[in-house]
Design goal:
mainly alpha, two-stranded antiparallel sheet, 6 helices, globular, disordered C terminus
Length: 250
C-alpha cells in the first residue's frame, strides 16, 4: 500500500498530557517549536554578545535581521510602530525558522498546521481590533467606511467592508498554511517518485527535486514569513492610524 503524501503532516503523541481537560500532549510539532525558539534565542543572544566596532559574521547577521524588520515596521506603521518591534520580530523569526527547519528530512513543518497559523492570525487580528478601539474609541468603526464614500452608498459599502475585515484573519491563516503544506506535499511526492526509480534513471529527477527543495528554502519559506509579517504590520498600522484601506501588501 502506497504511503499518502500527506503522511508527513500527521502528528502522533510522544507523551499524552491533559491539564484540566486541555490537551497539552508532546508531539513532533511541539518539539519543533521548542527547537525553533531555542535556535532563535541562541542566535540572537550570541549576535548581541559579540558586538564589535567591526562586526563579525553573527553580529552582521543579527544587524541585517534587525534592520530588515525595522524597515518593515517603518514602511507600514511609521516611527510609532517601533513599539511593536518585539512582537513583529518574534513573529517573523519564528515563522521563518519554522519554514526553514521543516525542509530538513525527518523534521516537521509547524506552519503546515492550520491550528498554528490560525492562532497567530487570530491573535494579530484581535490585537489590531482591541488596539483600534483603545486608541480611537467608536471612531475606529470608521474603518468600515472607505474615504470619500457618498452617503447613499453606505448601506452597500459597510457590509462589504465588514466582510473584508472578517476575512483578514482567515486569509492570513490559510495563506501561510496552504503554501507550506502544498510546497512540502509536492516535495514529498517528488522524492517518493525518485526513490521508486532505478538509480541510473533517478539521478536527474533527484537533482531536480533537490533544486526544488533549495528553491523553497531560498524563496518560498522567507517570502511566506515576510508576507505574514508585513500584513501583521499593515493591520496594526491600520489600527494605529485609523486607515482601514492600506492593505497594499496583499
Amino acid at each position: 500500500m502506497e504511503e499518502s503524501p500527506l503522511h508527513p503532516f500527521e502528528l502522533h503523541n510522544y507523551l499524552t498530557v491533559n491539564l484540566g481537560g486541555l490537551d497539552i500532549s508532546i508531539n513532533k510539532a511541539v518539539i519543533m517549536m521548542w527547537v525553533v525558539v531555542g535556535l532563535i534565542s541562541i542566535l540572537m543572544i550570541m549576535a548581541g554578545s559579540a558586538r564589535r566596532l567591526v562586526p563579525g559574521k553573527l553580529q552582521s547577521l543579527g544587524e541585517i535581521l534587525v534592520d530588515f524588520i525595522r524597515g518593515m515596521i517603518l514602511d507600514t506603521m511609521g516611527p510609532d510602530g517601533m513599539k511593536f518591534f518585539p512582537l513583529i520580530a518574534t513573529l517573523f523569526l519564528f515563522i521563518l525558522f519554522c519554514n526553514w527547519l521543516g525542509l530538513i528530512p525527518g523534521t516537521y513543518t509547524v506552519t503546515s498546521q492550520i491550528i498554528v497559523t490560525a492562532v497567530f492570525a487570530g491573535f494579530v487580528y484581535t490585537l489590531s481590533i482591541v488596539l483600534g478601539f483603545v486608541l480611537h474609541g467608536l471612531k475606529f468603526l470608521g474603518i468600515l467606511v472607505p474615504p470619500g464614500t457618498p452617503g447613499w452608498m453606505l448601506p452597500l459599502m459597510i457590509p462589504i467592508e465588514l466582510i473584508s475585515q472578517l476575512a483578514r484573519p482567515v486569509s492570513l491563516a490559510v495563506r501561510l498554511f496552504a503554501n507550506m503544506t502544498a510546497g512540502h506535499t509536492i516535495l514529498a511526492v517528488l522524492f517518493g517518485m525518485v526513490i521508486s526509480l532505478p538509480v541510473y534513471i533517478g539521478v536527474l529527477p533527484f537533482g531536480a527535486t533537490l533544486f526544488v527543495n533549495g528553491l523553497e528554502a531560498v524563496l518560498i519559506a522567507p517570502i511566506q514569513a515576510y508576507i505574514f509579517t508585513i500584513l501583521t504590520c499593515v493591520y496594526l498600522g491600520d489600527a494605529v492610524t485609523l486607515h482601514g484601506h492600506s492593505e497594499h501588501a496583499h
